[in-house]
Design brief:
It is built from 5 helices and 20 strands. By secondary structure, the chain is an alpha+beta fold.
Length: 266
């Protein structure tokens, strides 16, 4: 156990919590999983599952890991690809974040590195991913949202798919069909962040519905889960590997902003 503590950079108690999540994933039938720990407090999963065909990439991060930080792209850096922004920002992990319109205008309240994006599209119907350093919250759209002083990074999303460990029934048509997905989840104690992408629109990986996305997040240890922009925008970058998934367009899209993790090297 001490060997794992030294390798992963977090306590034995936290390791047990992470391993519990991993065991639930390993118990899933017909899944081929490859695990790696490229940074302190971070586990990366490359998972292939059959019937239905899914190719999933996920990052499980222990938020209290010293030196770990979560952030969102500032407005001055709008319109970059996931990998381009990650490299520019020297981030270890990055995924696409907010839904957006032409001109890379994000839908919903958005903030990055302490800078508020100016938009007329802020909506009280959105869910919000909020962060500051290694503190993360996922805000239910049914709860009145006021930007607090501690918040430095915010990404809005169209739908909450997981609440109190249960699927939140989704009525929007685009969430009822299988498609590439980008999602974030938090463990019940809010100590572990899960970031997940699922390829879609191919025979190798058909994509997920909202219900399937919620189930996958639960298997990774999430209690609350949020669907970010997906489709052709879905991309995950890991430093040292590049873009690890297969964007459905065959190349990375330029997106409004990204969610990034800064993690210390082993």
């Amino acid at each position: 156990m001490l060997r794992y503590r030294k390798h992963f950079g977090f306590s034995v108690a936290t390791l047990i919590l992470v391993l519990s999540a991993l065991l639930s994933v390993a118990a899933s039938a017909r899944a081929a999983d490859k695990w790696a720990s490229p940074f302190k407090g971070v586990l990366c999963l490359d998972r292939v599952k059959k019937n239905p065909n899914w190719h999933i990439h996920a990052v499980i991060a222990v938020l209290k890991t010293p030196g770990l930080r979560v952030a969102v792209t500032p407005p001055a850096m709008r319109g970059m690809t996931v990998s381009a922004y990650a490299k520019k920002a020297h981030a270890q992990i990055a995924v696409n974040a907010s839904f957006f319109l032409s001109g890379f205008v994000p839908i919903g309240l958005t903030m990055g590195e302490g800078h508020l994006w100016r938009s007329d599209l802020d909506s009280k119907l959105d869910s919000h991913f909020v962060a500051a350093h290694n503190r993360v919250e996922i805000v239910d759209p049914g709860v009145p949202f006021t930007r607090a002083a501690w918040m430095t990074d915010i990404a809005s999303a169209r739908t909450l798919v997981l609440k109190n460990g249960a699927y939140v029934k989704e009525q929007q048509a685009f969430m009822l069909e299988r498609a590439p997905r980008t999602a974030v989840g938090l463990s019940r104690d809010k100590k572990i962040l899960i970031v997940m992408v699922v390829d879609g629109r191919s025979s190798a990986s058909v994509g997920m519905t909202a219900k399937e996305e919620a189930k996958a997040l639960v298997e990774l240890g999430a209690w609350t889960g949020l669907n970010l922009d997906g489709g052709g925008s879905t991309a995950m970058y890991i430093q040292g590997k590049g873009v690890v998934n297969h964007p459905s367009d065959g190349y990375e899209r330029h997106t409004a902003n990204q969610l990034v993790l800064y993690a210390p090297h082993l």
